[in-house]
Structure formats: structure tokens, C-alpha cells
Amino acid sequence: MNRAERRRQQKLSxxxxxxxxxxxxxxxxxxxxxxQAMHFHQIGRLDAAIQCYRKxxxxxxxxxxxxxxMSIILFSLGKTDETVSCLQRAVSIQPDYAEAHNNLGNALxxxxxxxxxxxxxxxxxxxxxxxxxxxxxxxxxxxxxxxxDEAISxxxxxxxxxxxxxxxIYNLGGLVKYSDRSEIExxxxxxTKETRTEEKCLLNFSIGxxxxxxxxxxxxxxYYLKANNLERxxxxxxxxxxxxxxxxxxxxxxxxxxxxxxxxxxxxVTPIFIVGMPRSGSTLIEQILSSHPDVFGAGELPFFExxxxxxxxxxxxxxxxxxxSKWQLNDSVRLGDEYISRIRKISSKHRFITDKLxxxxxxxxxxxxxxxxxxxxxSVRSAEDTCFSMFRQNFVGxxxxxxxxxxxxxxxxxxxxxxxxxxxTLPGFIYDLQYETLTANQEQESRxxxxxxxxxxxxxxxxxxKTVRNVQTASNxxxxxxxxxxxxxxxxxYEKELKPLLDALGNPGHPPTPP
Length: 515
Known about the structure:
This protein is mostly helical. It folds into 3 domains: about 130 residues, Serine Threonine Protein Phosphatase 5, Tetratricopeptide repeat (Alpha Horseshoe); about 60 residues, no CATH class; about 270 residues, P-loop containing nucleotide triphosphate hydrolases (Rossmann fold, 3-Layer(aba) Sandwich). Helices cover about 60% and strands about 5% of the residues. It is built from 25 helices and 5 strands. Strands 2-3-1-4-5 form a 5-stranded parallel sheet, with helices on both faces. The longest helix is centred in the C-terminal third of the chain and has 21 residues. The two termini are about 40 Å apart. The N terminus and C terminus are likely disordered.
């Protein structure tokens, strides 16, 4: 919590410590427990803070400050169901509590409940019209729903209320095309004043994007580089550890492994996995498929790793291959069916459901083991365009390898080798779809894609940009447009600056650097 937030909470604490239905002694005890909780919260002792917040609520059941503050911790720990429960209770006690409505919107958004989240943000704005965070949340939802003009308007309102709102500036930049240098000046001015690393990163990315729109590529690259350097400095990452992890997978999941387990897995045919590197065209593939009436596009789901994680110690990746080699037939059927049960809660009526989490490329062999009748589509784009598109992006999630050009190129080669391993080990199980070929021959490639998935041709797949659905990725604006190929070869505008990346990728004339 920042200083302003603590002041708001303290005022609200006083408001809620009065003797509504309890005596003054009880109120004093609740106030003492709340102050202890806020202290522990402030210094990062989250378990102790939660205990004290719960103690406060045992004494004073309607203390909305305890509910709201505890929800912040629960949300940071990924306990979204408990977060929602806390905040719903808070707003039922105090309906005019704008911050609780806003935080409830954040929690509901994380659960994919966009309409409910939108209602919470709008309620916060109704109570407090000058609430930039609520406008920001509303903008995210509108962008994911394809309401791009409304999203732009919401982000602009957030920035008008909070001119240094770096997250809103960054998100707005993904939806607009800058046409004049004057539009960049406010961002440059903010950058000279900003001291917080996260905001400096976002501003550098934003300025780089704006300069790229103006085709000032050398200057744009310098801001992209500054942003990535700031991100990389805050991350602990070792590419050699990644290489060892990839090697362990390839050693265990070989042809003999699968020959001994031909009867393993659930017989269900529901899932269509779309795997590959981020920024490789996977969102476009999902949008085409989800335009078919028999397919539900579920986006990037965490379920597959969650299901296999249940059987493993906390150090998932390091123990995964060895642990899975001990699974029996019944284990594979049970886990495969559990994954199906989870995705069927998203849609019970569609014949197929897509799962577009890119990192599932690492788990193709485990998908074969648990769900041998699933479809796996590999989204492929030129290495240079894929990597540079990632280098321009501030990711949410663990993409530690993407903030250094050499490491990014090395990781791409590890991924490429892994996909070659899966193709050799599981011939015919994976369908490669090249982004450049798809954009050049939309109908032909779309027909081949549907045929691989066992789907009849449907003309709606050609008008994918008109399909109304939520798209919660950085490509949410691009898939609202008809297919285009203008981004193909975009890396060439930065070829000189990208030499460390090209060297690591092993371009012609550049010997590859081993991880």
C-alpha cells in the first residue's frame, strides 16, 4: 500500500470502528488487531497480516477495511475465489465503497468474468467519478471484447485523471497509431521525472512503439533496449538452466517411452491445443477456429500444467520427466479426464475447445500421454519477427528469457529443437501452421487447418475479425481486423540493431552461439 492508500484505509478504519452493533471495548480490540494487520501487511509479512485481518473480522464481522485489505493479499497469492468472496462481503456491508468495487472488478477480470467485472468497475466510477484505476480496468475489458473505440476512450479518461499512469499509457499505445511527434512529448517528459522501475519500463516501451509508428526506427530501438535492460536487471535467469531442462525432457520422452504406453490416456477428443512461441500468430489461429460454430476459443488456460502439477513436488520442471515415467495407465486416464472436466466447465456444448497457452509446446509429449486424441497445432512464424515482436513487448507472466537479445535468440533455438524432437518422436501428432503462409493464402490454409481438426468448412472462418469473443492477449486489437501481412519482415527495419539476436539465432553468415 502506498501512503495515499494508507490514509484512505485509516480514515475508513475510523469510520468502521464505531459501536454499530458492538460495544466500545470490542471496537477497540478490533482496531488494535487491524492496526497490527496493516503493519504486517506494510512490511511484507503476509501470513501474519492475514491472521490479524481474520482476527479483526472475528471481533468485528463488518469491518470492511479488514475485508478489503485481506482481499489484496489473497489476490496477490492467486486465491481469487476467496478474494471475490471478501470483496462481495465488503460491498454488501458498505455499498458506497468505491475501492472495494474496483478491486472486485480486478478479481472478477482475472477469473474471466468480464461482464461482472465491467459492472464492478462502472459501479466504482458511479461512486467516485475521478477513479483512474476503474477506467483502466474498464478499458482492459473493452479491449478484450473488441470494443476498441470504447477502450481508447477509457484509457484516455484514466490518463486525464492520472497523467503519469504508465500502464494506461502503455495499453493505449497498443490500440492507437501515433502520427505526430507532439504525441510523444508528454511521455518523454514523464520519463525524466519517473523513478519507479516498472513505470520507467512501460514508458520506454510506449515511447519505442510511438517512434516506431513514426518510422523513426533507430531511435525507437533505443527505447525498446532501455525498457528491456531495466526488466532484465530485475530478473534472475540463467539460459544454461533452461538448456538442461529441455535436455531432460528430450532424454525421457523418446520413441521407446511412447511405444511402451500406447494405451495410455483419456479417449476424449475435445481439446485443440495451439502451441508455440508468443507473438507467433497463435491468437489469429484461435480466432479463425473459434469462428467455427463447433469450436469454443478458451484462450490461454493454465489447466494443463495445474493438472500435472498435482502429482509433483513444488519443483515442477526439474522432477517432471522422471516422475511422469512412473505413471501408470490409470494415472494417465484420470489426469486426462480431469483436464477435460476443467475445460468443459468453460463450455459444455461445443464439440471442440481450444487451449492457446504457448508454453504448452514444452508439454506436447505429456499431452500425447494424457490426451492422445487431442489436436495439437504449432503456430510458426519467422524466428526474427517472432523474437523482435517479443522484444517490443512488456509481458505479464514469466518470460524472463525475452528481455535480452542473446538469451532470447538462444531460447528460441531451444524451443525450435524441442519442436523438432516432438515431430521426430510423435510423427503426425502436430500440425505446423506458418503465419506467413496463412496471411498470404488465407482460405487455402484455413481449409487445411479445419480439415486437420476434423471440422467441416464454414465461411465464418474467413470473416474471423467479425467474431464476437473475448481475446485476452496482446493481439486483441489485431484479430479484430481482416487478415494482413504488413507485419511480415518488420524486423528488417532494425536489422543493424538486432545483431546480438541474429547471432544467437544463427542467421546465415552468423555462427550460432551455444546456450
